[in-house]
Design goal:
Nuclear Transport Factor 2, Chain: A; alpha+beta; single chain; elongated; 2 domains
Length: about 160
Amino acid sequence: MKYKVILPAALKLFLLIVASAAAAQDTAGIKSLPPVTVKSSTKKIPDRIWKSFSSYFAYPENPRWFRANKNYLVKFMIYNEQNRALFTRRGNLVYHISYGYENNLPEDLRNQIKNSYSGYEISRAIRVTESNRTIWVVNLEKGKELVLIRIEDDEMEEIQRLKSP
């Protein structure tokens, strides 16, 4: 009879200790970014921002504008490629992200990737432009393996490698 009472109580205590230990992981080294609040789409865009946007992007399709804190986020398409750009209130471009595929990569980068990761298929190529920097984030696939790489100034860095069971 004692075992029927003690065993469940001990099991609950053990689970409580494990759960509290998992929740008490050290987060002192982790820096959090400030929260970004994206509000619903905006119909009135200041002329300064619209002119700046037009000077950067020729022939954007279906631009949709949103307020992101005090900035303006625009989502649009160019040549069947999804794009996002963030502008300040003064019309300065903060960053531009374009979501493409293998054919959107410059040929020299495509060759560099193919040489380093032979047998892998390039499934996605994302270009991030910010402060005169261009960074490519590329997804590679080979069977059940996924590799995420980052390329900046012709330097390639493997960010993550995942295998599905």
